[in-house]
DNA sequence: GCGGATCAC
DNA sequence: TATGGTGATCCGC
C-alpha cells in the first residue's frame, strides 16, 4: 500500500519520474484501469512532450508536495494504530454501518443522464464527414475528442500539441458554442418534461427524479429512460446514454436491474474510489496510501478510517461503501449563488501596463456578466497565475456593493500593486458576498419591473436585452468545462457500456443530517485540529442538490463483460467495441434517414460572434429554470500542513 | 475574512 | 509550437 515513500532521496537520479507524476501529467481524467498496455506508452509520450516546460515543473512540484503530505498521513496512521483496539473499533463501526443502512431509502428513482461525447457528437451531426475519423474539438486546449481520437489516448482538457503527438493525423475542429447551446437547450427542455425540477449538471447532463413521472405514466424506470432517450434522439439526433442502477421496489418482483441493498453493495464493492464524486486525483492518492482503491476497501480499512476520521470523513466513506446517497433532486436556485467572476489566460506578461490592460478587460467582462445576471457584491478577489503556474489570490472586502468595471479594475489594480513585480499568465476577478439585484423580496423596484414584465424568469428578461441577445445563445447554465466524459475512455477500454451514464443509486437517507444523529454527520464532521499535519477530509458531494448528503453518482464501469447496449436501439449486444460501433453507425444512419426531413435543420454553424464560453443566462427556451450555474460535487476538504 | 487547495464540469 | 474557465467548499489561520 505504501505507494512511494515520500522520502525522495535519490540524489542519483536527477529528475526521477514517479508513477504519480506521470499519471498527473496524463491529466485529471486519468482514471484508472485500463489499458495498461498502451496507456503506458501514451503516458510516456505525454510526459516527454511536457518535460522541461514550466507546466511540467509545476506539476512535479505539486506531486512532491503531495508525496510529503502522504508520508505525514502514514506516520499519523501508524501512531494512531499503535495500541488501538482494532477489534473494538471495527465492532463499533459495524454498528454504525447498520445504523446508516437502516436509513437507506429506495423509494426514489433518480437517474443521471448524460449526452454522449456531447461536443464531438454535435460536430459529427453537422459534419458527417468526420465520422470514423479521429478528431478533437477546440484549439489550444481540447474540449473533447471523438471516440476514434480517444483510442490514441486523446482526451478533453489535453493540450492540442500533445494530442498531435499522440495522433499526427488528428483533425482539429473549432468549437461552435452557439450550436452546443442550442442543442443543450433542446436536450434540457426534454429532460424537464420528465422532471420539472431536474438538476442540470453542465450543458449536457443532469439528474432527474423520475419517480412521479413513472407513477403518472405507469412506466417502469427502464421504460421511462428508454423513452427519454428516444425522445432526445428523435428531436436532436444526438444520442444519450442512461442507465438505471436503481429502481423502485415493485409490488411484484420481477426486477432485472436489482435494486436492493445487497445488489447495490455488490456493485459498489469493486468500484474504484476514483469514481466517487468528490474523489479526485489527490484524494485518490491519499486513500490509496492507506490501502483504499475500491469502495469495498473502505470496509476493509474502516478501523484506520475511524482513527483518522478527521482526515478522511468516515461517515461519508461508509455511505459510499453502502451505496447510499442523497435522494433528493432539485434545480439550483438563484439565491444559492455564492460568487461570480471572470478570468483570462494569455502569454506571460511582465509589463505592468499590459497586465493592467488585461485586468481592465476582465473587469469589463465581469461587469457585463454581473449586469446581465443581476448581481453585486462586497468582496473582490484578484486571482493571478505566475509564470510558474503557481496560483495566488488576494481579496478585499468593502463596505459597499461593487459591480462597475471601473471599481473592479481599481480594486484589482490595488491588490496587484502589492505583489509587483510579477510575471503572470492569467489574471482574474471574482466577486463574493453577493446581493441579488433581482430579489423581489428585498427590492421593491425590481419587483415592479418584473411584474410589469409579466415574466418572473430573470432569464427571459435577459433575453429582451439586445446586447445579451447577441452573445447569448447560450444555454441556461454555464457551459461546463471540457471533460465531457472523462470516464468514457475507461469504459471503452473495459468494454463496458459506452457513454456515461448513469446512475444513481438513489437511496438515501432522508436525513442523516437532521435526523437521528446517531450518525455523525457526514457533512461537517467535527474537526479538531489535533495534529497539525496534513490531512484531508472527504465530505459528501453536494451534487444533486439540496441536501448535503452524499450522493454517489456512480458511473458504472463495465463488469468486464462484453455486453454492450446500443445507445440508439437499446439492444444489448455481445460484441467488442468495433462491433458495437458498427452497430451504432447502422442505427444512426437508419435513424438519420427516417428522421431526416422532419427537422432537418442542418443549420449553418454559427461562426458568428460567439464570445468565449457561454455565459450563464439566456434562453430562448420557454421553460428553463432559473439558472443553475456551475454546480459542484465537492466533498473533499483538504488541509495541508505547510 | 483571507489564501491555498481540491474538485466538478 | 506556450496546458482553460466558472463556481463551490473546506481548512487553518
From TrEMBL:
<dbReference type="InterPro" id="IPR017961">
    <property type="entry name" value="DNA_pol_Y-fam_little_finger"/>
</dbReference>
<feature type="compositionally biased region" description="Acidic residues">
    <location>
        <begin position="467"/>
        <end position="476"/>
    </location>
</feature>
<keyword id="KW-0227">DNA damage</keyword>
<keyword id="KW-0808">Transferase</keyword>
<feature type="region of interest" description="Disordered">
    <location>
        <begin position="598"/>
        <end position="642"/>
    </location>
</feature>
<keyword id="KW-0239">DNA-directed DNA polymerase</keyword>
<dbReference type="InterPro" id="IPR043502">
    <property type="entry name" value="DNA/RNA_pol_sf"/>
</dbReference>
<dbReference type="Pfam" id="PF00817">
    <property type="entry name" value="IMS"/>
</dbReference>
<feature type="compositionally biased region" description="Polar residues">
    <location>
        <begin position="617"/>
        <end position="630"/>
    </location>
</feature>
<dbReference type="InterPro" id="IPR001126">
    <property type="entry name" value="UmuC"/>
</dbReference>
<protein>
    <recommendedName>
        <fullName>DNA polymerase kappa</fullName>
        <ecNumber>2.7.7.7</ecNumber>
    </recommendedName>
</protein>
<keyword id="KW-0479">Metal-binding</keyword>
<dbReference type="GO" id="GO:0006281">
    <property type="term" value="P:DNA repair"/>
</dbReference>
<dbReference type="InterPro" id="IPR024728">
    <property type="entry name" value="PolY_HhH_motif"/>
</dbReference>
<feature type="region of interest" description="Disordered">
    <location>
        <begin position="1"/>
        <end position="20"/>
    </location>
</feature>
<feature type="compositionally biased region" description="Basic and acidic residues">
    <location>
        <begin position="449"/>
        <end position="466"/>
    </location>
</feature>
<dbReference type="GO" id="GO:0005634">
    <property type="term" value="C:nucleus"/>
</dbReference>
<feature type="compositionally biased region" description="Basic and acidic residues">
    <location>
        <begin position="539"/>
        <end position="548"/>
    </location>
</feature>
<dbReference type="GO" id="GO:0006260">
    <property type="term" value="P:DNA replication"/>
</dbReference>
<dbReference type="GO" id="GO:0003684">
    <property type="term" value="F:damaged DNA binding"/>
</dbReference>
<dbReference type="GO" id="GO:0046872">
    <property type="term" value="F:metal ion binding"/>
</dbReference>
<feature type="compositionally biased region" description="Basic residues">
    <location>
        <begin position="631"/>
        <end position="642"/>
    </location>
</feature>
<dbReference type="InterPro" id="IPR050116">
    <property type="entry name" value="DNA_polymerase-Y"/>
</dbReference>
<keyword id="KW-0235">DNA replication</keyword>
<feature type="region of interest" description="Disordered">
    <location>
        <begin position="449"/>
        <end position="487"/>
    </location>
</feature>
<comment type="similarity">
    <text>Belongs to the DNA polymerase type-Y family.</text>
</comment>
<dbReference type="GO" id="GO:0070987">
    <property type="term" value="P:error-free translesion synthesis"/>
</dbReference>
<dbReference type="InterPro" id="IPR043128">
    <property type="entry name" value="Rev_trsase/Diguanyl_cyclase"/>
</dbReference>
<keyword id="KW-0460">Magnesium</keyword>
<keyword id="KW-0548">Nucleotidyltransferase</keyword>
<dbReference type="InterPro" id="IPR022880">
    <property type="entry name" value="DNApol_IV"/>
</dbReference>
<feature type="domain" description="UmuC">
    <location>
        <begin position="110"/>
        <end position="280"/>
    </location>
</feature>
<dbReference type="Pfam" id="PF11799">
    <property type="entry name" value="IMS_C"/>
</dbReference>
<keyword id="KW-0234">DNA repair</keyword>
<dbReference type="Pfam" id="PF11798">
    <property type="entry name" value="IMS_HHH"/>
</dbReference>
<feature type="compositionally biased region" description="Polar residues">
    <location>
        <begin position="518"/>
        <end position="535"/>
    </location>
</feature>
<feature type="region of interest" description="Disordered">
    <location>
        <begin position="507"/>
        <end position="556"/>
    </location>
</feature>
<feature type="compositionally biased region" description="Polar residues">
    <location>
        <begin position="598"/>
        <end position="610"/>
    </location>
</feature>
<dbReference type="GO" id="GO:0003887">
    <property type="term" value="F:DNA-directed DNA polymerase activity"/>
</dbReference>
<dbReference type="InterPro" id="IPR036775">
    <property type="entry name" value="DNA_pol_Y-fam_lit_finger_sf"/>
</dbReference>
<dbReference type="GO" id="GO:0042276">
    <property type="term" value="P:error-prone translesion synthesis"/>
</dbReference>
Amino acid at each position: 500500500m505504501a505507494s512511494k515513500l515520500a522520502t525522495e532521496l535519490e540524489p542519483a537520479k536527477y529528475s526521477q519520474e514517479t508513477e504519480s507524476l506521470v499519471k498527473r501529467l496524463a491529466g485529471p481524467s486519468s482514471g484508472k484501469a485500463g489499458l495498461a498496455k498502451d496507456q503506458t506508452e501514451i503516458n510516456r509520450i505525454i510526459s516527454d512532450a511536457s518535460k522541461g516546460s514550466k507546466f511540467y515543473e509545476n506539476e512535479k512540484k505539486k506531486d512532491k508536495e503531495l508525496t510529503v503530505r502522504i508520508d505525514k498521513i502514514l506516520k499519523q496512521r501508524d501512531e494512531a494504530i499503535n495500541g488501538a483496539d482494532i477489534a473494538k473499533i471495527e465492532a463499533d463501526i459495524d454498528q454504525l454501518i447498520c445504523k446508516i443502512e437502516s436509513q437507506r431509502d429506495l423509494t426514489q428513482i433518480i437517474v443521471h443522464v448524460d449526452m454522449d461525447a456531447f461536443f464531438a457528437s454535435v460536430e459529427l451531426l453537422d459534419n458527417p464527414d468526420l465520422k470514423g475519423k479521429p478528431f478533437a474539438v477546440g484549439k489550444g486546449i481540447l474540449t473533447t475528442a471523438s471516440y476514434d481520437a480517444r483510442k490514441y489516448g486523446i482526451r478533453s482538457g489535453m493540450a492540442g500539441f500533445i494530442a498531435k503527438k499522440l495522433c499526427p493525423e488528428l483533425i482539429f475542429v473549432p468549437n461552435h458554442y452557439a450550436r452546443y447551446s442550442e442543442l443543450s437547450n433542446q436536450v434540457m427542455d426534454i429532460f424537464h418534461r420528465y422532471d420539472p425540477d431536474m438538476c442540470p449538471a453542465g450543458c449536457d447532463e443532469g439528474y432527474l427524479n423520475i419517480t412521479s413521472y413513472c407513477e403518472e405514466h405507469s412506466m417502469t424506470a427502464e421504460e421511462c429512460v428508454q423513452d427519454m432517450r428516444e425522445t432526445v434522439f428523435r428531436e436532436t439526433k444526438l444520442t444519450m446514454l442512461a442507465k438505471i442502477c436503481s429502481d423502485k421496489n415493485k409490488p411484484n418482483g420481477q426486477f432485472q436491474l436489482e435494486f436492493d441493498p445487497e445488489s447495490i453493495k455488490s456493485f459498489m464493492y469493486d468500484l474504484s474510489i476514483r469514481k466517487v464524486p468528490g474523489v479526485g486525483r489527490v484524494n485518490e492518492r491519499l486513500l490509496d496510501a492507506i490501502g483504499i482503491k475500491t469502495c469495498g476497501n473502505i470496509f476493509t480499512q474502516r478501523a484506520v478510517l475511524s482513527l483518522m476520521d478527521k482526515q478522511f470523513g468516515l461517515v461519508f466513506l461508509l455511505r459510499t461503501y453502502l451505496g447510499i446517497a442523497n435522494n433528493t433532486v432539485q434545480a439550483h436556485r438563484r439565491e444559492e449563488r455564492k460568487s461570480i467572476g471572470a478570468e483570462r489566460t494569455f502569454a506571460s506578461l511582465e509589463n505592468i501596463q499590459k497586465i493592467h490592460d488585461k485586468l481592465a478587460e476582465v473587469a469589463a467582462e465581469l461587469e457585463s456578466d454581473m449586469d446581465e445576471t443581476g448581481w453585486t457584491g462586497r468582496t473582490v478577489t484578484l486571482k493571478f497565475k505566475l509564470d510558474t503556474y503557481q496560483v495566488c489570490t488576494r481579496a478585499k472586502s468593502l463596505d459597499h456593493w461593487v459591480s462597475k468595471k471601473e471599481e473592479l479594475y481599481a480594486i484589482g489594480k490595488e491588490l496587484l500593486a502589492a505583489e509587483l513585480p510579477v510575471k503572470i499568465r492569467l489574471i482574474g476577478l471574482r466577486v463574493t458576498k453577493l446581493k441579488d439585484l433581482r430579489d423581489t423580496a428585498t427590492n421593491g423596484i425590481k419587483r415592479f419591473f418584473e411584474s410589469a414584465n409579466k415574466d418572473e424568469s430573470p432569464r427571459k428578461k435577459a433575453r429582451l436585452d439586445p446586447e445579451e441577445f447577441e452573445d447569448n445563445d447560450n444555454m441556461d447554465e454555464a457551459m461546463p468545462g471540457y471533460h465531457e466524459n472523462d470516464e468514457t475512455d475507461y469504459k471503452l477500454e473495459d468494454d463496458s457500456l459506452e457513454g456515461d451514464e448513469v446512475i444513481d443509486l438513489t437511496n438515501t437517507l432522508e436525513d442523516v443530517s437532521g435526523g437521528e444523529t446517531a450518525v455523525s454527520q457526514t457533512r461537517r464532521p467535527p474537526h479538531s485540529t489535533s495534529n497539525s499535519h496534513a490531512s484531508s477530509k472527504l465530505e459528501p458531494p453536494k451534487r444533486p442538490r439540496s441536501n448535503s448528503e452524499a450522493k454517489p453518482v456512480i458511473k458504472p464501469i463495465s463488469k468486464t463483460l462484453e455486453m454492450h447496449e446500443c445507445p440508439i436501439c437499446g439492444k444489448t449486444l455481445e460484441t467488442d467495441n468495433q462491433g458495437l460501433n458498427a452497430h451504432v453507425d447502422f442505427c444512426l444512419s437508419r435513424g438519420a434517414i427516417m428522421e431526416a426531413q422532419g427537422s432537418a435543420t442542418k443549420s449553418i454553424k454559427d461562426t458568428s460572434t460567439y464570445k468565449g464560453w457561454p455565459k450563464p443566462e439566456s434562453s430562448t427556451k420557454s421553460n428553463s429554470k432559473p439558472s443553475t450555474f456551475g454546480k459542484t460535487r465537492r466533498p473533499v476538504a483538504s488541509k495541508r500542513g505547510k
